[in-house]
Request: fold
Amino acid sequence: MIKYLLLITTVVFISCTTTRYNRQEVYLKEISRYNLNNGDTLVDIGCEIGFHDYQIAHYYPDLFFVLEDIDANNLEQIKKNNANPQFVNPMKAGYELVLGTADTIPLREATYKKILCRKTLHEFAQPGKMINEFKRILIPGGEVIIVDINPKYPGQKYHDCIQPFLNKAQIIQLFANEGFLLKSAASFTARFTDLQDGNILVFTK
Reply:
Protein backbone atom coordinates (compact mmCIF):
# COMPACT_ATOMS: atom_id res chain seq x y z
CA MET A 1 0.00 0.00 0.00
CA ILE A 2 2.81 2.41 0.94
CA LYS A 3 4.64 1.60 -2.31
CA TYR A 4 1.45 2.27 -4.26
CA LEU A 5 0.92 5.66 -2.56
CA LEU A 6 4.54 6.64 -3.17
CA LEU A 7 4.16 5.76 -6.85
CA ILE A 8 1.03 7.90 -7.16
CA THR A 9 2.74 10.82 -5.39
CA THR A 10 5.76 10.56 -7.69
CA VAL A 11 3.63 10.47 -10.85
CA VAL A 12 1.55 13.45 -9.71
CA PHE A 13 4.69 15.44 -8.82
CA ILE A 14 6.34 14.73 -12.18
CA SER A 15 3.12 15.61 -14.00
CA CYS A 16 2.78 18.92 -12.14
CA THR A 17 6.40 19.97 -12.59
CA THR A 18 6.29 19.07 -16.29
CA THR A 19 3.14 21.16 -16.73
CA ARG A 20 4.79 24.14 -15.03
CA TYR A 21 7.89 23.77 -17.21
CA ASN A 22 5.80 23.52 -20.37
CA ARG A 23 3.81 26.60 -19.44
CA GLN A 24 7.05 28.52 -18.91
CA GLU A 25 8.25 27.29 -22.29
CA VAL A 26 5.03 28.56 -23.90
CA TYR A 27 5.52 32.00 -22.33
CA LEU A 28 9.16 32.17 -23.46
CA LYS A 29 8.24 31.25 -27.02
CA GLU A 30 5.66 34.05 -27.09
CA ILE A 31 7.84 36.65 -25.37
CA SER A 32 10.72 35.99 -27.76
CA ARG A 33 8.52 37.33 -30.58
CA TYR A 34 8.20 40.72 -28.88
CA ASN A 35 11.75 41.66 -29.96
CA LEU A 36 12.54 43.34 -26.63
CA ASN A 37 15.91 44.50 -25.35
CA ASN A 38 17.10 45.08 -21.81
CA GLY A 39 16.93 48.81 -21.18
CA ASP A 40 13.73 49.22 -23.20
CA THR A 41 10.50 50.62 -21.79
CA LEU A 42 7.41 48.49 -22.38
CA VAL A 43 3.91 49.96 -22.07
CA ASP A 44 1.40 47.23 -21.23
CA ILE A 45 -2.18 48.32 -21.95
CA GLY A 46 -4.71 46.36 -19.91
CA CYS A 47 -2.08 44.78 -17.68
CA GLU A 48 -4.54 43.45 -15.05
CA ILE A 49 -2.40 42.37 -12.04
CA GLY A 50 0.77 42.17 -14.14
CA PHE A 51 1.13 38.38 -14.25
CA HIS A 52 2.44 38.32 -17.82
CA ASP A 53 4.74 41.26 -17.10
CA TYR A 54 6.34 39.25 -14.29
CA GLN A 55 7.11 36.54 -16.84
CA ILE A 56 8.70 39.13 -19.14
CA ALA A 57 10.71 40.62 -16.25
CA HIS A 58 12.16 37.17 -15.56
CA TYR A 59 13.81 37.16 -19.00
CA TYR A 60 14.44 40.93 -19.26
CA PRO A 61 15.42 42.13 -15.76
CA ASP A 62 16.51 45.56 -17.07
CA LEU A 63 13.21 46.29 -18.79
CA PHE A 64 11.20 49.24 -17.41
CA PHE A 65 7.43 48.74 -17.35
CA VAL A 66 4.61 51.25 -17.76
CA LEU A 67 1.56 49.31 -16.58
CA GLU A 68 -1.85 50.67 -17.55
CA ASP A 69 -5.23 49.35 -16.47
CA ILE A 70 -8.70 50.77 -15.88
CA ASP A 71 -9.06 48.93 -12.55
CA ALA A 72 -7.31 50.67 -9.64
CA ASN A 73 -7.46 47.45 -7.60
CA ASN A 74 -5.31 45.66 -10.18
CA LEU A 75 -2.67 48.39 -9.99
CA GLU A 76 -2.72 48.31 -6.19
CA GLN A 77 -2.10 44.55 -6.27
CA ILE A 78 0.93 45.06 -8.54
CA LYS A 79 2.32 47.54 -6.02
CA LYS A 80 1.82 45.09 -3.15
CA ASN A 81 3.40 42.22 -5.07
CA ASN A 82 6.52 44.19 -5.95
CA ALA A 83 6.90 45.43 -2.37
CA ASN A 84 6.95 41.84 -1.10
CA PRO A 85 10.58 40.57 -0.84
CA GLN A 86 9.32 36.99 -1.21
CA PHE A 87 7.61 37.72 -4.53
CA VAL A 88 8.98 35.90 -7.60
CA ASN A 89 10.12 37.93 -10.63
CA PRO A 90 9.78 41.48 -9.26
CA MET A 91 10.34 44.22 -11.82
CA LYS A 92 13.90 45.05 -10.83
CA ALA A 93 14.38 47.92 -13.30
CA GLY A 94 11.28 49.69 -12.02
CA TYR A 95 7.75 50.34 -13.14
CA GLU A 96 5.12 53.07 -13.41
CA LEU A 97 1.43 52.48 -12.74
CA VAL A 98 -1.11 54.31 -14.88
CA LEU A 99 -4.87 54.37 -14.29
CA GLY A 100 -6.52 54.68 -17.69
CA THR A 101 -10.07 54.88 -18.97
CA ALA A 102 -12.04 52.84 -21.47
CA ASP A 103 -10.99 55.05 -24.38
CA THR A 104 -7.99 57.14 -23.30
CA ILE A 105 -4.40 56.49 -22.24
CA PRO A 106 -3.08 59.26 -19.95
CA LEU A 107 0.51 59.17 -21.24
CA ARG A 108 2.62 61.75 -23.05
CA GLU A 109 2.45 62.08 -26.82
CA ALA A 110 5.23 60.64 -29.01
CA THR A 111 7.19 59.17 -26.08
CA TYR A 112 7.18 55.37 -26.20
CA LYS A 113 8.74 52.79 -28.50
CA LYS A 114 6.92 49.57 -27.52
CA ILE A 115 3.31 48.90 -26.56
CA LEU A 116 1.97 45.49 -25.56
CA CYS A 117 -1.77 44.83 -25.68
CA ARG A 118 -2.28 41.22 -24.65
CA LYS A 119 -5.75 39.68 -24.84
CA THR A 120 -7.27 43.12 -24.34
CA LEU A 121 -7.91 44.62 -27.78
CA HIS A 122 -11.19 42.75 -28.24
CA GLU A 123 -12.50 44.29 -25.01
CA PHE A 124 -12.38 47.89 -26.26
CA ALA A 125 -15.86 49.22 -27.05
CA GLN A 126 -14.24 51.59 -29.55
CA PRO A 127 -11.06 49.80 -30.70
CA GLY A 128 -10.32 52.39 -33.40
CA LYS A 129 -10.23 55.15 -30.80
CA MET A 130 -7.83 53.19 -28.59
CA ILE A 131 -5.59 52.29 -31.54
CA ASN A 132 -5.43 56.00 -32.31
CA GLU A 133 -4.29 56.50 -28.70
CA PHE A 134 -1.53 53.95 -29.30
CA LYS A 135 -0.49 56.01 -32.30
CA ARG A 136 -0.51 59.21 -30.26
CA ILE A 137 1.86 57.99 -27.53
CA LEU A 138 4.26 56.12 -29.85
CA ILE A 139 7.36 57.65 -31.36
CA PRO A 140 7.71 57.45 -35.17
CA GLY A 141 8.61 53.84 -35.99
CA GLY A 142 7.27 52.65 -32.64
CA GLU A 143 5.59 49.26 -32.39
CA VAL A 144 2.37 47.81 -31.02
CA ILE A 145 2.41 44.10 -30.11
CA ILE A 146 -1.05 42.55 -30.20
CA VAL A 147 -1.60 39.12 -28.68
CA ASP A 148 -5.14 37.83 -28.87
CA ILE A 149 -7.20 34.69 -29.16
CA ASN A 150 -8.50 33.32 -32.45
CA PRO A 151 -12.28 32.93 -32.21
CA LYS A 152 -13.45 29.39 -32.84
CA TYR A 153 -16.67 30.80 -34.29
CA PRO A 154 -18.03 34.32 -35.03
CA GLY A 155 -19.11 36.11 -31.87
CA GLN A 156 -17.22 33.86 -29.44
CA LYS A 157 -16.58 35.50 -26.07
CA TYR A 158 -14.10 34.54 -23.38
CA HIS A 159 -15.41 33.84 -19.87
CA ASP A 160 -16.89 37.14 -18.61
CA CYS A 161 -15.72 39.32 -21.53
CA ILE A 162 -18.31 41.79 -22.82
CA GLN A 163 -17.01 41.99 -26.39
CA PRO A 164 -16.37 39.01 -28.73
CA PHE A 165 -12.92 38.04 -29.99
CA LEU A 166 -11.55 39.67 -33.15
CA ASN A 167 -10.07 37.46 -35.83
CA LYS A 168 -6.72 38.15 -37.48
CA ALA A 169 -8.18 39.92 -40.52
CA GLN A 170 -10.33 42.20 -38.34
CA ILE A 171 -7.34 43.23 -36.21
CA ILE A 172 -5.17 43.96 -39.24
CA GLN A 173 -7.94 46.07 -40.78
CA LEU A 174 -8.46 48.08 -37.58
CA PHE A 175 -4.78 49.01 -37.47
CA ALA A 176 -4.64 49.74 -41.20
CA ASN A 177 -7.54 52.16 -40.72
CA GLU A 178 -5.36 54.16 -38.30
CA GLY A 179 -2.33 54.17 -40.61
CA PHE A 180 -0.31 51.35 -39.00
CA LEU A 181 1.75 48.89 -41.03
CA LEU A 182 1.84 45.17 -40.24
CA LYS A 183 5.46 44.27 -39.44
CA SER A 184 5.08 40.60 -38.53
CA ALA A 185 2.41 38.00 -37.91
CA ALA A 186 2.74 34.73 -36.05
CA SER A 187 0.31 32.26 -34.58
CA PHE A 188 0.52 30.17 -31.45
CA THR A 189 -1.05 26.84 -30.69
CA ALA A 190 -2.43 26.18 -27.24
CA ARG A 191 -0.90 23.15 -25.53
CA PHE A 192 -3.39 22.95 -22.70
CA THR A 193 -7.13 22.50 -22.61
CA ASP A 194 -7.65 25.75 -20.69
CA LEU A 195 -5.99 27.79 -23.44
CA GLN A 196 -6.92 28.60 -27.03
CA ASP A 197 -4.98 29.24 -30.24
CA GLY A 198 -4.22 32.84 -31.12
CA ASN A 199 -2.12 35.42 -32.97
CA ILE A 200 0.88 37.61 -32.22
CA LEU A 201 0.77 40.64 -34.52
CA VAL A 202 3.30 43.48 -34.54
CA PHE A 203 2.35 46.82 -36.09
CA THR A 204 4.60 49.80 -36.81
CA LYS A 205 3.59 53.46 -36.61
